[in-house]
Amino acid sequence: MSCPRLSVPDLPLDELMTRWPGTVRVFLRHRMLCVGCMVSPFHTITDACREYHLNEDAFLTELMEAAGLM
User: Which residues form a coiled coil (predicted)?
Assistant: First the structure.
């Protein structure tokens, strides 16, 4: 089974943070409650950005940098 890309649109946040633990600090820096949230198995980056009124492209870039993918 291959590892999904961080930018896959339907990747749940809990899986994202498990596969790339360095991304947790990005969520915390933005004061997002996604870390440990019961909804994180169902929410995606798009959902979180919509909920917190963040620019999705900029946020994704931050996540990719934190994950060491850039």
Answer: none
Token digits of residue 3: 């590892």
Contact status, residue 70 vs residue 46, Cβ threshold 8 Å: no
Largest Cα separation within the chain, whole Å, is 34
- Transcribe 7-65 into DSSP letters: T-TT--HHHHHHH-GGGHHHHHHTT-TTTT-TTTTT--HHHHHHHHT--HHHHHHHHHH
Looking at the chain, the whole-number percentage of residues with pLDDT higher than 70 is: 94
**Is 1 a residue whose pLDDT tops 80?**
no
Q: How far apart are CA 33 and CA 38, in angstroms?
A: 10
| Residue 68: DSSP 8-state | T
For the chain, what are the domain ranges? Answer: 20-66
